[in-house]
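Mods, move this if it's the wrong board.
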Amino acid sequence: EMSGFDLCTRIRSFAPHANTPIVFLTGLATFQNRVQGSLSGGNDFIAKPFNLHELGLKALLWVFKAQVGVS
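Not the wrong board. Structure tokens:
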């Protein structure tokens, strides 16, 4: 078993996924978890309960950022 933070770190260790956007979707929305998500390589964070429109918007933003080369 591993946490989402550990999984994020592991994904980042594989060269093909070094720039893959990772968005945490969690009920553990404390400031410390947001910081740990960033430090483990996450790009964004959505707290539960989440709005489906927010999730869609964040996904689109990361797709567009990848297309224009913004990290």
